[in-house]
Design a protein that fits this description.
- The chain has 350 residues and is an alpha/beta fold.
- It has two domains: 177 residues, Alpha-Beta Complex (Quinone Oxidoreductase, Chain A, domain 1), CATH 3.90.180.10; 138 residues, 3-Layer(aba) Sandwich (Rossmann fold).
- Helix content is 26%, strand content 26%.
- The strands form four sheets. Strands 3, 5, 6, 9, 10, 17 and 18 form a seven-stranded mixed β-sheet that branches. A six-stranded parallel β-sheet has the order 13-12-11-14-15-16, with helices on both faces. A three-stranded antiparallel β-sheet has the order 2-1-4, with no helix packed on it.
- Helix 6 links the parallel strand 12 and strand 13.
- The chain is globular.
């Protein structure tokens, strides 16, 4: 079975078509014939190699998928063949102490489709029954593939971990990629006053249109903490959503309001930071980590998406044969939203 991925770790030159075994559903599992798969920055890290994370080679990219159920395992009787679905890429064991408390994102054996397993940029994907959800009516395959990972990540980070309350100020650090458009929409939906911070003015402007009240463009003269300090009239920001890491977290801390929460969901520009702890304790702020979402949180944000309160943002759609070019698009400076790879099946996008 063909998939887009790599046979050895390295850079973009390693990306190509690989062969992996055709999967069969076991008890409690569902097999999905993929119609569209979406990329994330995670795929670039997997390609380079993540310290401490064993990755089976050859390896197929993709954490997000949408498609049609074409086979089910034993004990699955409530998903008819042919059902159009999207896939929750968070894989938990359901038996550890955290899962039993409904805190699946803290699962001791948490895995992510495409990182710890073969990914979705292929023909067939097998996941537990609990991980498939009906494709919302009227959505394209690309929209369905674009939603799961980034919306659940932003939802948990802002609503649960960040404890965002109506009327509070929110800063989304980084205007492009895929998670920022989701975070802006969710913060606005939860009643926050949102500012988007980035270096690319065009992408900041696009993010503002999703529900932010301010777009702040970083420059050599104006760092993002100074911009946020001015935006809040020297009060500071209640909740800061930061996925950049080493380059931005120290300045984000300086922009926190008293009692503010800095939620870190990634480290795209490096994991090692130096912090001034005096700022942290004097403002009685907190730095909190967040990743993926619990089963209940996924259901919550899925309902918001299905009802049209939140909208997946697609940067571009690529035909199957252009898979290598699609992956390269992921690293483009003007990328905004999800890069989606469609299969060669004729009814894709209908």
């Amino acid at each position: 079975m063909k998939g887009l991925g790599f046979a050895a770790h390295g850079g973009p030159e390693r990306v190509g078509w690989v062969d992996i075994p055709r999967p069969e559903p076991g008890p409690g599992e569902v097999r999905v014939r993929v119609r569209a798969a979406a990329f994330n920055r995670l795929d670039r890290f997997v390609l380079e190699g993540i310290p401490g994370v064993p990755i089976e080679l050859p390896h197929v990219f993709g954490s997000d998928a949408a498609g049609v159920v074409d086979a089910v395992g034993e004990d699955v009787s409530d998903v008819p063949l042919g059902t159009e679905v999207l896939v929750n890429p968070a894989l938990w064991d359901g038996t550890c102490e955290y899962c039993l408390k409904g805190q699946e994102s803290l699962c001791r054996n948490l895995r992510i489709l495409g990182e710890h397993t073969q990914g979705s940029a292929t023909e067939l994907v097998v996941v537990p029954r609990r991980n498939v959800h009906s494709k919302p009516s009227g959505w394209s395959w690309a929209q369905a593939a674009a939603a799961p990972l980034v919306f659940q990540t932003a939802w948990r980070a802002l609503r649960t971990v960040g404890e965002l309350r109506p009327g509070e100020t929110v800063a989304v650090i980084g205007a492009g990629g895929a998670v920022a458009p989701a975070a802006v929409q969710i913060a606005h939906r939860l009643g926050g006053r949102v500012a988007v911070v980035g270096r690319n003015a065009a992408k900041v402007e696009r993010a503002v249109a999703l529900g932010a009240e301010a777009g702040l463009v970083v420059s050599a003269e104006r760092s993002h903490d100074r911009l946020l300090w001015d935006w809040t009239k020297k009060r500071g920001v209640d909740v800061i959503f930061d996925s950049v890491g080493a380059e931005t977290v120290p300045r984000s801390l300086r922009a926190l309001a008293r009692g503010g929460r800095l939620v870190v969901i990634g480290a795209t520009e490096g994991p090692d930071v130096e912090l001034d702890l005096r700022t942290l304790f004097w403002r009685q702020g907190s730095i909190r980590g967040s990743t993926m979402a619990s089963r209940a949180e996924f259901d919550q944000v899925y309902a918001e998406l299905a009802q049209g309160h939140l909208v997946p943002v697609v940067d571009s759609e690529w035909e199957w044969e252009k898979g290598v070019d699609a992956f390269r698009r992921l690293g483009a400076p003007d990328v905004f939203g999800k890069v989606v790879l469609r299969t060669s099946v004729s009814d894709v996008g209908t």
